[in-house]
């Protein structure tokens, strides 16, 4: 079932929102989050540090990630940061960043929302699926990888042991989705929609 979510059409469920929520709680869910806003900010090293201090509350090291002002700020390199957020926040940040770019010629902003897919792995066994995929490297230890790490053609944002997001070009999204689904079969993975994701996030917040 599809419906608008913050102005973009998303899958709200695949037949049973309650069943999908139960899958996240007891096993693991796989969700298409391509509706998220995806902005790429580029600037010289020193200038990027100043921008991140103002916008994200601190410098973002390459491979690092910080949740600030309702968005994830992800350090691809010392001169390149990817910003991920819901559309309402994304529209505000888009305008804010473009205003800065207009004032500072060395700052560049690109909106990659339409060009990049975002695939979310969420739920109790997220870490097991990522370990099976090899996202944690040869050691299989999540403590030995950075919060933003590249693996098998995707850029992974490791938000927590129960939530991770893979950014990938739209043309490769199907192959990445299938690879995650195969890795997660023995852990009970199933496709989940926006309803389950929203409700699971609320449960996690209440548990903290």
Report on the structure:
It is a single chain. With 208 residues, the chain is an alpha+beta fold. It folds into two domains: 2-35 and 114-203, Gyrase A, domain 2; 37-111, Aminomethyltransferase beta-barrel domains (Alpha-Beta Plaits). The protein has six helices and 13 strands. The strands form three sheets. The protein has a six-stranded mixed beta sheet, with helices on both faces. A five-stranded antiparallel beta sheet has the order 5-6-7-4-8, with helices on one face. Strand 5 (65-68) and strand 6 form a beta hairpin. Helix 1 (17-26) packs across helix 6 (194-207).
What's the CATH superfamily of the largest domain, by name? Probable tRNA modification gtpase trme, domain 1
Low-confidence stretches: none
CATH-level-2 architecture of the largest domain: 2-Layer Sandwich
Q: Given the helix and strand composition, which structural class is it? A: alpha+beta
Cα-based radius of gyration, to the nearest Å: 17 Å
**Topology pattern, helix = H, strand = E:** EEHEEHEEEHEEHEEEHEH
How many discrete structural domains? 2
Major pleated sheet: 6 strands, mixed
Widest sheet: strand ordering:
10-11-12-9-3-13
Number of strands: 13
CATH class of the largest domain: Alpha Beta
Beta-strand residue fraction:
25-35%
Helix content: 25-40%
Shape: globular
Concise overview:
This protein has 208 residues and is α+β, with helices and mostly antiparallel strands.
């Amino acid at each position: 079932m599809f419906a608008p979510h913050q102005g973009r059409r998303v899958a709200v469920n695949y037949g049973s929102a309650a069943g999908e929520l139960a899958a996240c709680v007891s096993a693991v869910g796989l969700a298409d989050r391509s509706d998220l806003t995806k902005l790429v900010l580029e600037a010289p090293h020193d200038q990027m540090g100043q921008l991140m201090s103002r916008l994200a509350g601190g410098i973002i090291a390459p491979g690092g990630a910080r949740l600030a002002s309702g968005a994830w700020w992800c350090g691809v390199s010392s001169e390149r940061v990817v910003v991920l957020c819901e559309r309402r926040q994304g529209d505000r940040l888009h305008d804010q960043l473009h205003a800065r770019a207009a004032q500072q010629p060395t700052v560049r902003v690109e909106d990659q929302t339409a060009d990049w897919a975002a695939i979310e792995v969420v739920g109790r066994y997220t870490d097991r699926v990522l370990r099976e995929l090899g996202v944690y490297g040869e050691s299989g230890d999540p403590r030995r990888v950075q919060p933003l790490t590249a693996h098998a053609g995707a850029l992974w944002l490791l938000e927590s042991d129960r939530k991770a997001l893979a950014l990938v070009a739209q043309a490769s999204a199907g192959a990445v989705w299938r690879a995650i689904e195969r890795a997660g079969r023995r852990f009970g993975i199933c496709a989940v929609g926006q309803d389950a994701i929203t409700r699971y996030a609320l449960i996690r917040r209440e548990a903290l």
